[in-house]
Amino acid sequence: MERPEGRQADQLRPISFVPDIAPHATGSVLVSFGNTRVICTAMVQPGVPRWMKEQNVPGGWLTAEYAMLPYSTGGGRKPRDISRGKLDGRSSEIQRLIGRSLRAVVDLKLLEANTAWIDCDVLQADGGTRTASITGASVACAIAFERMVAEGKLKTSPLAGHVSAVSCGVYEEEAILDLCYLEDRDARVDFNIVMTEDSQFVELQGSGEEATFSSEEMSTMLELGRKGIREISELQRQAVHTALGEADGDAAHRLADHFNQS
Q: Can you give the pTM of this predicted structure?
């Protein structure tokens, strides 16, 4: 089996993070998984949703929004959701996934009475936009929270550790890691795996595309996912350390100590 990009079955696409892509956000990063590129930002603002106040729920809240920009795909201009008057079902499902994934590693009580707004805007889509969004959003949150600690706006970072995501699938009867668009389009089975950096599952999304899959195939995909997440987590740590090290060496040291204790 030869993959369209010539990668091995267990090989990730080239992954990169460009921090501070949106200077007015509390934390931001441009994440690239191959030709998939997503701007992920975290903006932390005072206040919590009304339901939290009414129910006397302590701490803060984290929520996410996701959008594919009109020029993000090769199939012509994608209309903005606002032009249709409502969010499409796919975008709604993905932004809920991003929010759930981040809340799995964020201690909302330590966020205090603030709301963290996560925005993921897809600049270019070539498969795996939801997994790239989760991965980039975790980096943006780490940068944002540590900078707030450095500025005295939070006592400690509420982020217990990174969360990241990767796709797996069965393509031409072989399990593969991190599908590009062509592989995703033609895969017999498609899986999205969300995990913490200490290899705990957050969410699994998998289905056969008009097909079934065996327990052996699922086990192979899960192992590929674990391998990919371990590699991605290390890249996330490096990206945050670089971003904070350039601007605030103390914050970088605090972050390293915080994750080591988590």
A: 0.91
| Residue-level length of the chain | 262
Tell me what the pLDDT averaged over the chain comes to.
Answer: 92
- Provide the angle, in degrees to the nearest 10, between the axes of the packed helices 215-247 and 129-150: 30
Question: Domains of the chain: which residue ranges?
Answer: 15-261
Continuous segment of H or E residues that includes residue 205: strand 201-208
Rounded distance between C-alpha atoms, residue 114 and residue 258, angstroms: 21
pLDDT tens digits for 78-104?
888 777 777 788 899 999 999 999 999
Q: Contact, 199 vs 230, CB < 8 A?
A: yes
CATH of 15-261, one of 3.40.190.10, 3.30.230.70, 3.30.70.120, 2.40.128.50: 3.30.230.70
Extract the tokens encoding 200.
Answer: 């705990």
Q: Is 261 left (phi over 0), alpha (psi -120 to 50) or beta?
A: alpha
Report the distance separating Cα 205 and Cα 128, nearest Å.
13
Compare 246 and 195 and report the one with higher pLDDT: 195
